[in-house]
Design goal:
The chain is of the alpha/beta class and 575 residues long. It contains 20 helices and twelve strands. The chain folds into two domains: 302 residues, ABC transporter type 1, transmembrane domain (ABC transporter transmembrane region fold); 243 residues, P-loop containing nucleotide triphosphate hydrolases (Rossmann fold). The strands form three sheets. It has a six-stranded mixed β-sheet with strand order 6-9-10-3-11-12, sandwiched between helices. The chain has a four-stranded antiparallel β-sheet with strand order 2-1-4-5, with helices on one face. The longest helix has 53 residues. The chain starts with 11 loop residues before the first helix and ends with a helix.
């Protein structure tokens, strides 16, 4: 918990101001009962009306001053806590942005969402309450004890009994509550995960008539969360009545023993009223601390989860002395590349070597699970090679900054993704300064101009999150147009034509060949018809290259390629 509070460091002045204001508030609250005792002892007992009026006006002035101080301290405390929460969320988002796919897979999207939202909120709430309550409570408790001792020393022995008793009760309850709070955050992760899967896979669920099964799955996750929260609720349902019982019994004991001391003449009645007020302030401070203890364990569990994200150093990072290629051409070279996923016994790719040059189209084909997408993901450094080297324009990608590498690549993923906004904002995602003419030109090449022109608003037409308001084929064409607007040296298509019909596929490839004649084009495709005209076709089988050449050459020399072709095309089409 303390580790994450380092994000409060930029707000030292605001924290100092809040501390000063809280100290002033505590002094004022402690002064009022003492002044009230003087009014009773000096004014009421002696019938001095002038003294009562003067002291009463002073009490009123102090009370008004305390109101102003309280407002200002709460304002600055809340403002500082909100800024703290903003900074922590920014730190998490910034760190996750640097994660490789390996780190993202380690945590998972549902957990990262919960950590960025719910966990940060839990810590932020503790900071808000801490600056508004936790700072004031120690001042009031310590000050109240000192002032109570001044009023009557023998009666103050009640404090020595009550405070340790409360501390023991709260400590025992917190010891049991801490594991429950950790479990609660994990249960929230699970509910988030099931809910995301339900919403993302709604079509599959309905197509396979699995709504009842999904409802049961969500019910299990929801019940587990509810049971954990009920367990926490039961603990604090015991704690609050116990604390209130001790609070009220202490007041009764104070009245009883205080009355005896007044009867014996050892204590003025005004001192008893002040002592009662100080006892109440001390116990209220303990109750405020108890309220904080309710929140601190859950916030501590959340802080640990946040620190797990912030403490991870991404395995893929920029080199300390980056190298920039002397020429910008777009040559991609694999040199005896090997790759295995973390914890895997066998490599996914082994001994992969080939060169993709500008002005040429290099295609990668193979059966399912042969390593095509893995190979493509190595180019933009979504993963780092575990053996051999991958060079872009003669420089190992591990020796370049990621921004430098990414600026040279236009990547079209297998699953096209669009951001909420407009058609224009999505297409300008890679190059914000692109003109409308350039955007329309990219749409024309990607065979998307016709349907965008028909949309209301055209380039200003809205796009829903993930591109949910356009079809799969339209989404894929917009993703291709987005890469074309960027005008990179290297185009990487990871099976990006699968959602297109054959006619659109052929037209797009013909237009693409004319527009990217000076760029390096690397295509992964399931359809043989998509890559038959490629300059070089790389055939993968179980992570190794079993054939390389043109379509005609591979039909003569590579049995694996012939099997792939014959499984998709008729003899006439092959001929």
């Amino acid at each position: 918990m303390m580790k994450i509070l380092r994000y409060l460091a930029p707000y030292k002045k605001q924290l100092a101001l809040v501390m000063v204001l809280m100290l002033a508030q505590a002094i004022g609250n402690l002064y009022l009962p003492d002044l009230n005792a003087d009014i009773i002892n000096e004014g009421v007992a002696k019938g001095d009306t002038d003294y009562i009026v003067r002291s009463g006006l002073l009490m009123l002035g102090v009370a008004l001053g305390l109101g102003v101080v309280s407002i200002v301290s709460v304002y600055w405390g809340s403002k500082t806590a909100m800024a703290f929460g903003r900074d922590v969320r920014h730190a998490i988002f910034h760190r996750v942005q640097r994660f490789s796919l390996a780190e993202l897979n380690t945590f998972g999207a549902p957990s990262l969402i919960t950590r960025t939202t719910n966990d940060v909120q839990q810590v932020q709430m503790v900071v808000v309450m801490g600056l508004n309550i936790m700072v004031l409570a120690p001042f009031m408790a310590v000050g109240g004890i000192i002032m109570a001792l001044r009023q009557d020393l023998p009666l103050s022995t009640l404090i020595a009994v009550v405070i340790p008793l409360l501390a023991v009760i709260i400590g025992l309850l917190m010891r049991r509550a801490m594991p429950l709070f950790t479990s609660m955050q994990k249960r929230i992760d699970r509910v988030n995960q099931v809910m995301r899967e339900k919403l993302a896979g709604i079509r599959v669920i309905r197509a396979f008539v699995r709504s009842d099964y999904e409802e049961r799955r969500f019910d299990v996750a929801n019940r587990e969360l509810s049971e954990t929260m009920l367990g926490v609720g039961r603990l604090f349902a015991v704690m609050m009545p116990t604390v209130m019982a001790i609070f009220n019994l202490t007041l009764v004991a104070t009245m009883w023993f205080g009355g005896l001391r007044i009867e014996s003449g050892a204590m003025p009645i005004g001192n008893l009223t002040a002592f009662l007020t100080y006892i109440m302030q001390i116990l209220m401070s303990v109750m405020m601390a108890t309220l904080m203890f309710v929140m601190v364990p859950r916030a501590a569990a959340s802080a640990n989860r946040i620190n797990e994200v912030l403490d991870i150093e991404p395995k893929i990072a920029d080199p300390s002395e980056p190298i920039t290629p002397s020429q910008t051409r777009g040559v991609v070279e694999f040199r005896d590349v090997e790759f295995r996923y973390p914890g895997a016994q066998e490599p996914v790719l082994c001994g992969v070597s080939f060169v993709a040059r500008p002005g040429e189209t290099t295609a990668v084909v193979g059966s399912t699970g042969s390593g095509k997408s893995t190979l493509i993901n190595l180019i933009p450094r979504f993963y780092d090679v575990t053996g051999g080297s991958l060079l872009v324009d003669g420089v190992d990608v591990r020796d370049m900054t990621q921004d430098e590498l990414w600026s040279r690549i236009g990547f079209i993923p297998q699953k096209a993704f669009l951001f909420s906004g407009t058609v224009g904002s999505n297409l300008r995602y890679g190059r914000a300064g692109a003109t409308d003419e350039e955007v329309w030109r990219a749409l024309e090449i990607a065979q998307g101009k016709s349907f965008v022109s028909a949309m209301e608003g055209q380039l200003e037409a809205p796009i829903a999150q993930g591109g949910a308001n356009v079809s799969g084929g339209q989404r894929q064409r917009l993703a291709i147009a987005r890469a074309l607007v960027k005008r990179p040296e290297i185009y990487v298509f990871d099976d990006s034509f699968s959602a297109l019909d054959f006619k659109t596929d052929a037209a797009l490839r013909a237009a693409l060949a004319r527009d990217t004649d000076n760029a390096t084009v690397i295509i992964v495709a399931q359809r043989v018809s998509t890559i038959m005209r490629a300059d070089t076709i790389i055939v993968l089988d179980e992570g190794t290259i079993v054939g390389s050449g043109t379509h005609e050459e591979l039909m003569r020399t590579c049995e694996t390629y012939r099997e792939i072709v014959r499984s998709q095309l008729t003899e006439e089409e092959v001929a």
